[in-house]
Amino acid sequence: MNLHIDGHRNENLGVLKLSGEIDAYTAPQLKEELLALVEEKREVEVDLLKVNYMDSTGLGVFISALKLSKEKEHHLKLINLQENVYRLFNITGLNDVINIENTVKGELS
Amino acid sequence: MSSLKSDMQDYKELLSQYLKTKDEAVLYQAEQFSKQSIQQNISPDEVINVHYQALQELIPNIDESVQDSFQFLIETMISYGLAYQEHQVLREKQIELKSEIGVAANMQNTLLKTSVPSANAMDIGVKSVPAKEMNGDYHHFIKDEQGNIGVAVADVIGKGIPAAFCMSMIKFAMESFTENQIYPQWILESLNRVVGRNVDKGMFVTMFYGLYDVYTHQFYYASAGHEPCYVLREETGEFEEIDAKGLLLGVESTVQYEQLQTAINPNDLIVLLTDGVTECRVDGRFIEQEEVLNVIKAHAHLESQEIVDHVFKYFERLQDFQLRDDFTLVVMKRNDG
Predict the structure, then answer these.
(1) What is the distance in angstroms between the Cα of B306 and the nearest Cα belonging to chain A?
(2) Which domains are present in chain B?
(3) Transmembrane residues, as ranges (chain A) (predicted)?
């Protein structure tokens, strides 16, 4: 399965809507697009509503993005995480250092 | 060169036979000839040259333009010859690399070797299986002068050789701690600084650290973003999750870790593991983990090492069993009465 990345930008805000799976194969592409967006925009939102699978390489991408956003004093926010994707952030303690809004159950198309 | 000469002679005879008989058996020999040529690193343009020489001897009056066309064909084959040589070099390099990775894997095993401490109060079993050649999992035991037992299980996010090097660094940091510093909270806070300062930006480590006090039978533990571990209580026959909140090592420069403790009763079983649990599927369960616990429960009366061996045997028997991640399992049983 692939990861589809849909990006929108306006003046200060960049949004990435993701759908599919984040794993060792799709993570490099996500990393490239996400880091570029965090570099560029003061506010970045990543919508994970349609992400049904993520492994530890995905966590690595979000940690890198978090570090970059702190360096740049930009803001990174993850929204609409599926429960089991959120579980990863919870186990690893990342939910305390990454801004996460709204976790959901189901609603997968 | 002499072999090329004798090969040429063979080739000429083969060709002559074929031209006379059109026998398929001779064609088969031609195929063998090509295999031999490859073994002897003979390039395609050389083979055509051999063909051309043989043809000239077999058919004395070849049309001049046909002769010239062979020169032309030999020239057009030269790049293939070069590509073939390159391929050979790459093959040799690949063999070299493979053996170097083998050496690295061996070195990792030596560097990361930890011995299971023998203790009267505790029976310990451990098994660690890498999904690929290099293991990104790590477990470590420390025994202090009083005989208390420290145990760590860790998983590096970011696989392969860099992960292995990272593990070596963590091991040496842990071994440098003095004996009165083996409380879980302190260890994780120190390791977090070590990892944050020394490890590549894209690499992170989860670790569960426990300290078993052999006098009070308290198990102290802390977790740096590691999945929960378990205690199988003899009294209830049920697993109790033990988990402490804490951030992955190497994300923030200073982190405070929560340290908890639980009393371990005779025949209670402490289960520490790393699994591909940093993976998830919305539509699936953590089948492996549930199954692991069930197998442990079914064999809880055995010695710890037998228990972990049974878990791995169970998975090996499953069809299509393939480790999706490195997997480590540590079982510790309080065995005094």
Answers:
(1) 30
(2) 2-91 (1.10.1240.30), 117-334 (3.60.40.10)
(3) none
